[in-house]
User: Fold these one by one.
Assistant:
Number 1:
Amino acid sequence: MGVMATANGGRATGTFTVKRGLADMLRGGVIMDVVDAEQAKIAEDAGAVSVMALERVPADIRRDGGVARMSDPALVDGIQQAVTVPVMAKARIGHFAEAQVLQALGVDYIDESEVLTPADEAHHIDKWAFTVPFVCGATNLGEALRRISEGAAMIRSKGEAGTGNIVEAVRHLRAILGDIRKITQADSAELYAWAKELRAPIGLVQELAETGKLSVPLFCAGGIATPADASLVMQLGAEAVFVGSGIFKSQDPARRARAIVEATTHYEDADHVAKVSRGLGDAMRGEELSELSERLAERGW
Amino acid sequence: MEEPAATVGVLALQGDVLEHEAAFADVGVVTRRVRRPADLGGIDGLVLPGGESTTLSMLLESSGLFEPIAQEVARGLPTFGTCAGLILLAGRVEDGRGDQRTFSALDCAVRRNGYGPQRFSFEGVAQPVGDALDAGEGPLPAVFIRAPLVTEVWGGAEVLATESSQGSGGGPAPVVLRQGHVLGATFHPELTGDRRLHRLFSSMAGCTKRAPAASSARLATRSLGRPPPGEAVPARR
């Protein structure tokens, strides 16, 4: 570890531009959680821009408990062979050895995810040490900037995975984007107070004040279950969406997946969202937040 | 009377739309997002950005855009595809899905993800061939993200740049192609600060003469008037 880019006949791999570039290409798309090759194929056929390999979807992790870990490499291989879209996979927070394995398997993006059981209670993975890019979750702007300072090339708002309830995703998106709007109005002295309050590097806060946006794409995850949910978070400012349990815990995954893809593209066109929302069958059942025994979004520091 | 400024449409179904808008703003060209067939009216050129080609193909069909764009491209609308956009323009996709259709406007074959998974994505350079890309300015910085590899070129396609260290036959692989009014790059010029490709396409969109069959149809759409200024999308980055 420790080498960010390697020169290979004048080619630089693993640069930040290359890592962030793939996130740019996924904008306006839907990334779907899948546990095996069969689900991956359904997701790709429905228009997913990428699939996320994990051992169990969040709703099952929540229901069954136990330690949730990286997927079996055999399942990752099977998913990679089944689809041509980029394959992401989840590693536990701080578990850099799982991340090394996933990089060796040739996954296209690693999600250092609070949905799995954390491996380190103080440290996230040093993502600069990898050639493969990382996405990390965030509930607020400080968390997002800390993950970027560790080398994340994409941020997703966390929401509350496995609930089918959009309320937390909305809270987190509004928290991140609301603070960005405030920082663009701050004067240069106030930026130091912002950096202190957010526990984030002053350089990133200053850059944010200048550009008015995060230096990496901001996607949304955690609780999206319907086409209208996707339209909502895109209108709030998300640049793409992750859907976990919302697809394969619904009555008709293929149709719902395709409807969410179309709603994410045409999020500003309510007629189109209405058209694709018709007769999709039952959505996942969903959970009221006050009934949860554990909040996954609180994992990560 | 002064001719109104040219407007380039950017297909905005999925992918790196913002970067193309910013690149055209750099060269002083107005852009408009294309999500529905009506958005094609009155544009002088069309950009197919990078993204996922399977997703773009599906969304082109479901949005009712595939046939209208195919007709416009065939009639001579200047069109520029980068990465996934080039795949959509290629004559043949070697490992595409059975249901993946293309506009078949560039006489070339491409292999998707021709360089391997993301860990082999790279920043490198493209060497200009001939002078369409101002060879005097040196090689173009080029960002290849899960890029397609051009494996064969035939017919009317002209190679404008190559990448030195790869190629199915061991030689340099073509990375920029032009065929009449159609331009394609396997990499992402919109992710670098070099604007030669966007300048070249802007001049293609501003000067290209269209086939006679096209002119009446295009005049008809133009008589509906240009979009109000509010519809033109300013650069956000």
Number 2:
Amino acid sequence: MTQKLLDITGIGKDRLHLAWVSSAEAQRFVDVVTQTTATVKGLGKFDPQEFASALSAAEMTLGGEALRWLVGKEVKLTTSGDVYGRKWDTERYESVLDAMLEREYYKNLIYQAVKEGCTSVRDICTRVGLELKKVSYLLADLEKTNQIEFKCMEDRKPVFAAL
Amino acid sequence: MDKCIACGLCAEKCPKKVTNAFDAGLAKRKAIYVEYEQAVPLKYAIDENCIYFKNGKCKACEKFCPTGAINFEDQPKELTINAGAVLIAPGCAVYDPGLYDTYGYKKSPDIVTSLEFERILAATGPFGGHLVRPSDHKKPKKVAWIQCVGSRDMHPGSQPYCSGVCCTYAIKEAIIAKEHEKGELDTAIFYIDIRTHGKDFERYYNRAQAVGVRFLKSKISSILPSETGNLRIDYTDKAGLRVEEEFDMVVLSVGFTASHKALDLAQKLGVETDQYQHALTSSFNPVRTTKPGIFVCGTFESPKDIPQSVIESSASAAEIEALLAESRESMTLTKETPEEIDVKGDPPRIGVFVCNCGTNIGGFLDVPDVVKFAKTLPSVVFVEDNLFSCSQDTQEQITQVIKEQNLNRVVVAACTPRTHEPLFQETVTNAGINKYLFEMANIRNQCSWVHSNDSAAATEKAKDLVRMSVARAGLLEPLYDPEMEVNQSALVIGGGLAGITTANNLAQQGYVTHLIEKSDVLGGQALNLYETWQGEDVQKKLAGLIKAAEADKNINILTNTQIKEVSGFVGNFQTTVETAGTEQVIEHGVAIIATGAQEFKPDQYLYGEDQRVLTGLELDRKLIDDNLALNEIRTAVFIQCVGSRIEERPYCSKVCCTHSVKNALKLKQLKPEMDVFVIYRDMRTYGLREDLYREARAKGVAFIHYDFDKELVVSKNQNDLNVRCTSYVLQREVEINPDLLVLATPIVPPRENPVASLFKVPLNDDGFFVEAHVKLQPIDFATKGVFVCGLAHSPKPVDEAIAQGLGAASRAATILAKDTVQISSLVSQVDVEKCIGCGLCDEICAFNAIILEDPEGKGYKAKNIPASCKGCGLCAASCPQQAIDMLHFRDQQIIESVCAAM
Amino acid sequence: MADFEPKIVAFLCNWCAYAGADLAGVSRLQYPSNIRPIRVMCSGRVDPLFIVKAFKEGCDGVLVAG
């Protein structure tokens, strides 16, 4: 999941490696470390400044309630079913998770953008690279959760502020 | 030995090369060595090949040893120990196929034993884990396994019994070899019967077939080198036809054989042995030798696998605990520790000790530079380097420095906390510092040793590791391992053979034991058994055990009783039980699940329609009752695996083959002229039970290996029963008209077992309980304080059920013997202010260690149960409110390390 | 680029990968020195937030091994 998010942020999932190594598998540990190092080396230096708002948005996403809920419920949803007794297959679960990951991330990215001074919808669109409709939709969402507010109209354009 | 730090310099310098027995002779080691990497204690030893011992010159190891740990003068010492009981576990030897060399083992390097093959597959083995054949180091394309080498064989040197483990290990080796070569390997196992009778082993056999391991029922004529440099196996197949096939490599699945050392020991102790030189025991006392006070476990008792050996080790501990109950804790010493200094609120004063570990760290990275660097770190007030931080004198010196410098946090940069943290924790405790205010930086195992060719990079990494540890150390808090009182009584659920055994033993150890049974009598399935495979009268012995339980005032027997509710945790369970409509709460410290299983009643082969068709236990009942009608029978047929080893019920019930063979022999004894047939798929008379199988064949019982893929039909022709199947050997259909048909049906667990959900312990797909570890913890659950034994765990015969019943008692006693349980401090902590009582943590915790509580009626809050918590931290990483943190591994402590890494 | 030595934070489970890493040391196996191991009691402890934090601090890669 975190790997997926890294892909969405543009950091790339290859900067995060996950592996299972047992206590007796010294050679496997060496292989994993060697390979991880080689991959990361190939990706070059990571500049946290460049991804500052992306990282902050990722942090908000992963720390957010909604996502943590969905992840925590994975086993229950896929083995014993949801509150309606419907059992989810892995594919369905993954697609719901992906959708939520993306929505939450962009919401948080917009929030970051507003916080950093992009107050008009157009500014936000350029900054986060999303189409107008999507941004408006997510802005409405953010308003609902009291993260941003509509401040005033300026040059007949709405201006938003982070709360 | 205390001085050796296992740096390995001695072995590096030792000029004498010796064949490495641990690598099954496939590689070399030095005359000074450790047997294998994970040896405990990890200390080097010199063997008789040492040049100095032979010529009086060399001593290279002594010259290079950085700690002066070499002592050439060491002599064997004779010790006198006064003991109330003796347990012997001398094991057995492995058959040497070179002795009579029927298979040409000595002639071709590519014929190896299964143990040699294990080493070839091992990453630490002679070929670095690459599957190559010894002769030319080329990858083999085809590997064959030959089963029963030295077992089930009447030839001189071999053993007539079955070793019981080789089928499963050969399957394991074939699967691993196949996985290793990513499927590009042909594997074939040549066998007589595949005996995968252990728990879940049949599934493993099925899996092997699914991944393409070939199984060939055969008799081997010869294995000879072919013109192409390979090995040609000549064999007769199951239809009796002669076949040849070439392989690149042949593995001999060697079995167990008698150990002379073990026999010597037994003779010295006056312990009697059987004709195969195993310690004599009986089914009802499986770990008692013939000499009172001397107990036995493992393969010296009879051939067996790891889980059974581990079960027996616990069983013998239980016997000894009961025998020596009176003198329990009479020799215990208490350790004194100085009073702890309160450091709360004081700013951190960190001391850093950097270990050179002789040359193990100092030789590869710049320790003075690391020391210099450490001095610059915030809150660090003292830094020094030691030659060996772990040596006795340095330990004392560190204690002194802590006092002099008023240190309140200590970091040791040395080897790994996995081996040395407890030692240093003791050191700081001796200086009055809480042991959780100590931190290690692993600059040896994970730095100097693994980056030995780049000193600069290793030094840089070591500095970072020290900085990370110091950063973390500054945030450490003192913690106190809580102690909980233990209710020193046990609840045994199920009054069958295993449950009664557990209760009797615990009572003998002095613990109050509640034995609850669902039905109105004790005894369980054993009430239906006639004789054990060794010929003991089950009813007589069982009656004796029940009588003992009833007479013991430590045992509270509750029949007609069921469990309604369970709460609590290790040391403090409260279980509500209902006896004939009345409920009561039993408080107990541990629970032993012995809920059993029963014989499957089939719905095929005219069972229930014709009185002449019985199950195995129904025949036992007739034998117990001395039913004279049995003498009238002319022809008896046993059909094996009725309802077993099929898709719906894929497991093997382990006991049925021996049971049928035993009863076939009994019928022959009652009436020698009776025709007795056993129709089977694989005859699984494992271990010493093979003797019965041989005896049965000698006495004229006819065994028909039938084609499972073709039909087996039981029908009624007028009044005659008719059994029809296809024999492999005869390659044709066989018809028998028996007047007794015995169906060997599986052992099945109850369809619904409320005990599993009440104690929140898992069941497998077949309905048997899942132990904490199949090999090493066959009686425990992952949940502390709950244990399993008997048929509830898996199908097993009387002797194994008793051994496991005893084992459960000894596992339970590890908790009951103490007044309190010490609980780890490394558990989760819920911030009740942040917690909204959503219950996600309760749901995801695998150990049942978080519950929801509403003590004040202000809404539910999560609460950690330290006694159950394993400190994994999943709850903390998942909490939607981020309301959970882990003690000693707090978010902030980890994040601080992360920041310091940069 | 050839001289670039990344820093990689590695979260290692005490019972599995950390033990495996110790054994690699005992066996004197060699591997790149770029990783900075952090011992945790279980890889389940690794909150994704730790990973983001590592990137924020400027580490070039993260390894989680259980």
